[in-house]
Amino acid sequence: MALTIYGIAASRAIRPLWAAEELGLPYRHVPWHYNGPETREPAYLAINPNGTVPAIDDGGLLLFESLAITLHLAQTRPAGGLWSETPEGVAGLYQWTLWAATEIEPLARQWFHHTSFLPPEQRIESLATAALDKLQARLAVLERHLAGREWLVGERFSVADLNLAAVLQRLDALGRGELPHTRAWHQRCLARPAAQRAWALRQAKA
Amino acid sequence: MALTIYGIAASRAIRPLWAAEELGLPYRHVPWHYNGPETREPAYLAINPNGTVPAIDDGGLLLFESLAITLHLAQTRPAGGLWSETPEGVAGLYQWTLWAATEIEPLARQWFHHTSFLPPEQRIESLATAALDKLQARLAVLERHLAGREWLVGERFSVADLNLAAVLQRLDALGRGELPHTRAWHQRCLARPAAQRAWALRQAKA
């Protein structure tokens, strides 16, 4: 079944790109930009009515929301090793994916918008600082969880690690203090050959 | 297997409470408040290291993140009818759950904080307005999706409807304009006997 991944690699499309690389899936990458123009066209809005990236066409199955896409790819290709075989494990995949989406991403985004993404005149420094302040308590939870374990769920790298590591891609800037377990885990994730191949797509299109 | 749901019903604990009611699961409700003191105690932090609500103990399986909990409950009790039997359907459950978490909840929360939740002197009216402005484009996507269909995924109520309807609990205030399909869908969701039973817990503890 043909898999197409829409969205420039320098966007949340990095998540499905990384997942496809981990799973060894052949795919076609359509590196459209989140600002358009292609993502504003009716043909794309029929794939993703939000006009955002990423979205995928997985043999006719159309899907948006980057973290939903990685869950779907991991679950439907269990031989790829990103899913779990136990109810406890699957629950953990859901938990850390939703934790990434709910507890980390809005703050990481707020910080990034008000330090880099928005035009300088629209940035509000106090909002960037407030986001960093709030993130520290949450990263402390992650740090305690990763003490004495290598991966978020079970004994191997999973889609939970992929999702959270990608949401935390700017961990160097987001985390204060040493956070040794979190930083080592993050480096383990990003050093994976599949991650390297996915991130190389950012350089190629930059 | 015994199921315990932690968290006052007037919190995101309404989501697992509603799911348990839909699935016909017996459960013990521990209505602790998100402000503590019980949720700051080591015994609770061992269940949910974030110190937030909700969390569950499902026969020894500990889980936090409300939307992960509802996915877990729905998936492990497929006879309850909230899950899907097809890969396309399951992908849709993930998609709309993550869409609720990513596209709706941060804005709904920003609006609520700056109109009701924060002490009046900390509220910033422009942030409430900005949240409402952004929400309209997203609700327009939902409105188009629900035109001509009764439920978000497939032909029946699912955990996707439960998750998004709960995240949109303040739809009356969040949605401008008529949004006829969205409002009718939301009423269909909240009129369900299981939803009524869950929401009644808010009155009981108020």
Describe what this molecule looks like in 3D.
2 copies of one chain form a homodimer. The first copy, chain A, is an alpha+beta fold and 206 residues long. The first copy, chain A, folds into 2 domains: 3-81, 3-Layer(aba) Sandwich (Glutaredoxin); 87-194, Glutathione S-transferase Yfyf (Class Pi), Chain A, domain 2 (Up-down Bundle), CATH 1.20.1050.10. The first copy, chain A, is built from 9 helices and 4 strands; from the N terminus they run E-H-E-H-E-E-H-H-H-H-H-H-H. The first copy, chain A, has helices at residues 14-23, 42-45, 66-76, 87-117, 125-146, 159-167, 171-174, 180-190, 193-205, and strands at 3-6, 28-30, 55-58, 61-64. The first copy, chain A, has a 4-stranded mixed β-sheet, with helices on one face. In chain A, helix 1 (14-23) packs parallel to helix 3. The radius of gyration of chain A is 17 Å and the shape is globular. Chain A binds chain B through residues 49-50, 58, 61, 63-68, 71-72, 75-76, 87-88, 90-92, 94-95, 97-99, 101-103, 105-106, 138, 141, 144-145, and chain B through 49-50, 58, 61, 63-68, 71-72, 75-76, 87-88, 90-92, 94-95, 97-99, 101-103, 105-106, 138, 141, 144-145.
